[in-house]
Write a structure and sequence with these properties.
Strand content: 25-35%
Number of domains: 1
CATH superfamily: Hotdog Thioesterase
Order of helices and strands: EHEHHHHHEEEEE
Strand order of the largest sheet: 2-5-6-7-4
Helix content: 10-25%
Largest sheet: 5 strands, antiparallel
CATH class: Alpha Beta
CATH architecture: Roll
Structural class: alpha+beta
Radius of gyration: 18 Å
Length: 162
């Protein structure tokens, strides 16, 4: 099936893709202990549950270290790409992260787990600055029915400068 190209300001065509159903999962990314350690160094969040593998084996309810929730969230650019998305937005000048209406961390991501994500289009609105598109993204540890996180992401597609 060919990917449909939809102009960023074609609100009606974009709205046809609003759905209650999530699309297929994208690629898998392994969350290694090294990634977790590096994220801790960048953010300054050095809680033992993320870094101390021996203590986590003894004291953590998960039996191992777990990824920071925000590390999992930060993987979205890698996780979001589907091999054959049903549509792509075209014709815009730039797209920016406009914010979020919801972020929930629902399950841990153990060190060494692979994660993948799928999403659904929630809403499309024309605005003064461009087109606002809201997507709900669910990231799961591979093999888990319960999402590790759910994120409502709002993107603003702006026209090319005149």
């Amino acid at each position: 099936m060919a990917t449909e190209k939809i102009e960023f300001d074609d609100i009606a065509s974009l709205q046809k893709h609003v759905s209650e159903e999530f699309g297929p999962f994208g690629k898998e990314v392994e969350v290694t202990q090294e990634m977790i350690n590096q994220f801790a160094d960048v953010t300054g969040d050095h809680q033992w549950i993320h870094l101390d593998t021996e203590r986590a084996k003894r004291e953590s309810p998960f039996g191992t270290t777990i990824a920071h929730g925000f590390l999992t969230l930060s993987l979205l650019p890698q996780l979001s790409a589907q091999e054959e998305p049903p549509y792509v937005v075209v014709g815009f000048g730039n797209v920016t992260n406009y914010g979020s209406d919801k972020l929930r961390f629902l399950a841990p991501v153990p060190a060494g787990a692979k994660v993948h994500a799928h999403s659904r289009l929630v809403s499309v609105e024309a605005g003064k600055k461009g087109t606002r598109i809201e997507q709900e993204v669910a990231v799961h540890a591979v093999g888990s029915d319960r999402p590790a996180l759910i994120y409502s992401m709002i993107s603003l597609y702006q026209p090319k400068p005149s």
